[in-house]
Amino acid sequence: YQALCDQDTVINLTNHSYFNLDGEDSGSVEGQHLQIFADSFAENDAGCLPTGRIVSLDSEEGAPFDFREPTEIGKRLHEENIHLKNGSGYDHNYLLKKQPDGLCARAYSRSSGILLECRTSEPGMQLYTGNFCPPPISLARAEKAMPTGQGSVWRHSTIRMQWSTRNSQALFCLPESCTTPQPNIISACCNQQAFL
Question: What is the pLDDT of residues 36-53, one digit of tens each?
């Protein structure tokens, strides 16, 4: 991204990509695994705006946000927790632990074999699980994507890991069985053992 301003101003270019590593129209991301290299996150108020308070993942209130080890996204998503309520799911900024290679998060789908690694030089990363995504176009499409009775189809059907774009990158690792070239995707040899 680039910006050209005609006077002094604040600018924060950011990445707004959404991912479902199982593929389009595959339903919820709750069964996909996530790892975030952070020990705390920023609290949101009822309007989902940051309060300035930092919540430790070691605390009882921070426990549902603990992705320090690879964990299914949906494992604690529906717990009774004021922070999950305020974000209608995960919509929180994690305060990252600096890694030598800038690695801040990994997401992995066992069904597709796709691994997403995110790197940044920035101090924080926003995790969002599609809590406010629109309803499905048709009931037939909804029933295909998610069995009836499990709530809104598009809610929690995507994951966004957002960071400032300065010195940041996302790397996709595709399974060996994937032979179709994908535009804008970099494939590489990755260690997926941590997620198996």
Answer: 999 999 999 999 889 999
